[in-house]
Amino acid sequence: MAKKQGNNKQGKAMKYMIIAKLNVNGTVQRKDIIGAIMGQTEGLLGDDLELRKLQRTARVGHVDVEMDSKGGKVSGLIMIPSSMDNVETAIIASSLETIDRIGPCQSKIVVAEIQDIRSTKRTVVVDRAKELLLSLVNSGESASKTVIEEVRSVLTTGTATNFHGLTSGPNVESSDSLIIVEGRNDVRNLLKYGLKNTISCDGAGDIKQELIDLANSKGNVTLAIDGDRGGEMLFRQLVETMKIDFVAQAPVGQEWELLPQKTATKCLTQKEDAKKFLHKLDQLQNEKDEQNANTATAEDAEPKDAPADVQEYFDHIGDLKKNNALFVKVDGSVSEAVGPAKLASAAEEADGAIAIVFNGPVSKRTIEIASESAIETVVGTTAGKGCEDADDVKVWLQDQFA
Fold first, then answer.
1. CATH number at residue 231
2. Is residue 186 part of a domain?
3. Is residue 204 domain-resident?
4. CA 380, CA 326: separation in Å to the nearest integer?
5. Angle at CA 213, nearest 5°, toward 211 and 219?
């Protein structure tokens, strides 16, 4: 007798990433956007390409929304991973552009691109392989001239030199532009990518006068800092002592000595004006100081009430029998009550649902049911076993706001 096949939901690898730009003429929340995507594409492409069903079978992954609200308008990106073929993925992507309203607000969605995730991974593998091969040759562990010739055929490497004790590329004096980095390994990494006008400042501390004079003599100077607080501190120090025209910051938590070529090139291309970067840092620091002050004040203040929409969910609890649940839909309507045994099956059929309201302790299983059905909010009376917020589900408990 053949063995019963297990659920292969976890085994499907995503092939493509749909990336769409979003603009909304009004203020909406993330749940409104996801509700519109699920609701307005429902029935458009037939049962085989219905988004909720595709998510349940792992042919489409979790819908991710990055949004920014400013001046009463919302803009951002919608990202949907897909394990389907390129034709089906393109159809799903094009269906997003039919959405012209989110809640009461006019909206416009334009698909920016469909990324081939496998191709991106192959690029990362190739870049890393080049780094490892070059590291092996430089370590002296391989004396094969054939290997050295192969490395030279795929990488444009330069030779690090010395400028008054500072590690630098060979063109720091002849070039009209200069890239200042923190350490010697940053210089060597950028040399691999053909950037020969880089120089290290050997980190924070005493800055050599020769480096200051060199920077002040250049047509433009870019400071490449790591994506951490140390990099920002170095910028504040150097911008007060020498000419800095632009700032190129590595992604958060990353360092220039380890950046692959594609990322390093992107960071340098997207460099910011030094004055604007300083202003942005000052604004972030002021906001942090204000938050700290508000936190200190809030310690003695009364607990805050739940948000208005969550308070409405709490009001539904009184209408339910113990351990029964109902579903709240995007338009504010509610479903019939269901018992705990039928909660999972009812959630699968609850099209347009944005919240589960449960008259009882919220358990880990309840949260899993919400996640599997793309329902972002779970409301209950108290915390049950394993109760905690998931990446895509927010939990609200009535006893915390009594």
1. 3.40.1360.10
2. yes
3. yes
4. 11
5. 100
Q: What would the two tokens of residue 236 be?
A: 């504040």
User: Residue 381 sits in a domain of what CATH number?
Assistant: 3.40.140
pTM attached to this predicted model: 0.38
| Average pLDDT across the chain, whole number | 83
Pick from 108, 106, 111, 102: nearest CA to 37? 102
Do residues 165 and 277 share a domain? Answer: yes
Q: Per-residue pLDDT tens for 152-177?
A: 444 444 578 889 889 999 999 998 99
pLDDT tens profile 194-243? 888 999 987 656 788 999 999 999 999 999 999 988 888 889 889 888 99
Same domain, 272 and 315: no
Residue identified by tokens 């603009």 is 23
Are 99 and 173 contained in the same domain?
Answer: no
Q: In what order do the strands lie in the sheet with 64-70?
A: 64-70, 73-82, 16-24, 105-116, 101-102
Q: Same structural domain for residues 323 and 250?
A: no
Within-domain flag for 134: no
Q: Cβ–Cβ contacts within 10 Å for residue 29, how many? A: 17
Q: Are residues 276 and 165 in the same domain?
A: yes
Alpha-carbon gap, residue 207 to 203, rounded angstroms: 9
